[in-house]
Amino acid sequence: MSPHNGLRHSAAEAADGTEPADGETESGLPDAPAPRLARVILMAALLSFLLITMLNVLSEGLGTGMNLVALACLAAIFTLQLRHSRPKAHRAPWRWKAAALGVQALLTYLPLLVFQAEWGGMAGFFAGSLLLLLPPRLAWPLYAVVGLSMLLPPALEGRSVLDSVYLCQSTLLTGLIVFGLTRLADLVHVLHDTRGQLARMAVTKERLRFARDLHDLLGYSLSAITLKSELIHRLVPAHPQRALAEIRDVLAISRQSLADVRTVASGLRDMSLAEEITTAEGLLTAAEVDIRVTLRPGTMSQQVNTVLAAVLREAVTNLLRHSKADSCVIEAVQHEGRVRLLVENNGVDPDYRDPSAHSGSGLGNLATRMREISGELSTDRGPADTFRLVAEAPAFPERPWSGADTAVPTTRKPAA
């Protein structure tokens, strides 16, 4: 499978809901943790800190009643912390955040009077909540104040300075862990949402690419088939042999149209400007249009060659569909590293407007294609009933392209 097909295949899987292989994402990269797993890791860390604090309280032997009080306070802190760690909690109203932080502060500091330093681990939860809910300018100073406040309980109990420093350091570390794991869970959630959006964008982009290429390729072929069919209808009574020759041309164009559809589906859509000019000459001659060609395109990248060929196809298609031209000028010239394609014809009705709801967007598609190769497309009405289309681009654009970008000489084939 080519890289282009692989990209479209994976994007289509994301669109229709099918899952990629285990251990891979839609882009073929190793799978990221699921949002649910990230939340489970956060909850496991919170419960572990709560369990450590509960074990410290139980080791003091304060009795069943006090142990139940400690358990109730821990449950309340855990509930508050889950609310503070939920996505977008920092966007809650200030009144709610002030009330929630006030209750958590009471549940953090009041039990210190009873459980003393053994309750100090809960200050880390409070410090983490400050970082999660408040603006950074206010949150980080308060976070430091909470950490420094944990120097006091061991000192009031007559413990060593090392115990005070340990409790302060563990409080600050717990706050960072709570803050970091919460933000990590939020980031994983955003990552999964963004990955889904990118997959949908890839599918949309591929649909637009397919529609654009189908319009560019088939619009020309169908116009040619229509023109030649009308010519055959006129030739059959008086010139049956020439009509047979035209029928062979129609069959050839039909086969090429089928190949073009397959080309669009496969993503391999390289075209040749020289070949398109030769084809346009034969088609316009059959339509009794006097055509003059100047062809000196030099050497250009395959990307530019393909885009300019598509521009020429659309220009000839519009000429056949929307004008009554009897003369046309086509020039493809390279000068100072830039290739310029000019298509000019007469027979344009200045008041013409296509009323069809599906009249196409060929020129818009081509303008997009030209921008992709750092080029530009312009159209204007000339004097009388003339119409001019000019496409110009560097022969070797610096912008990378997904297709093969090898240099190709654009030598002209003899007209059929």
TrEMBL record:
Any Pfam family matching the protein = HisKA_3
Region Disordered, as annotated, extends over 1-30, 392-416
Alphabetically ordered keywords of this record: Kinase, Membrane, Transferase, Transmembrane, Transmembrane helix, Two-component regulatory system
Q: Which residues form the Signal transduction histidine kinase subgroup 3 dimerisation and phosphoacceptor domain?
A: 206-272
GO MF terms on file? kinase activity
**InterPro entries cross-referenced by the UniProt entry:** HATPase_C_sf, Sensor_HK_TwoCompSys, Sig_transdc_His_kin_sub3_dim/P
- Superkingdom as given in the UniProt entry: Bacteria
Transmembrane segments in this chain: where? 37-58, 64-82, 94-114, 126-152
Record's PANTHER family?
NITRATE/NITRITE SENSOR PROTEIN NARX-RELATED (PTHR24421), SENSOR HISTIDINE KINASE DESK (PTHR24421:SF63)
Protein name, please? Histidine kinase
